[in-house]
Amino acid sequence: MFGVRLPRYRTKSGLFDDIVAAQIRRLSAAWPQLVKPVQFAVEDVPPVQSDVWQDASSTTSRGFPAQHGVPARIVLYRMPLQMQVTNRMELQWAIRDELVSQIAELYGRRPEEIDPDWGM
Description:
Elements: H1 12-30, H2 32-35, E1 39-43, H3 50-54, E2 61-64, E3 73-77, H4 78-83, H5 88-107, H6 111-114
């Protein structure tokens, strides 16, 4: 029997969700006016559509601008991101970079404006 806070209780997808939530909280503290109106989601893999696979950058995340009363959305794709890294620290950086780049793209800013450590 393991308690809910012990490492063996967490699944890979649960840990991924925790890292995403922590990065969103961090970015929201720094840029509340940019992060608050955006909805965030995690999917296991990108949808199977020909237009999605033509752009390699959309295999790890995708941003959807606000339109017709629907708020802006950012979707991270868990399995492609996990396949690119070898440890938890790299996963944190990859998630951070994906979120920052998608937020920057939604608002027409450079990622370095949102997070000076982006890409490091």
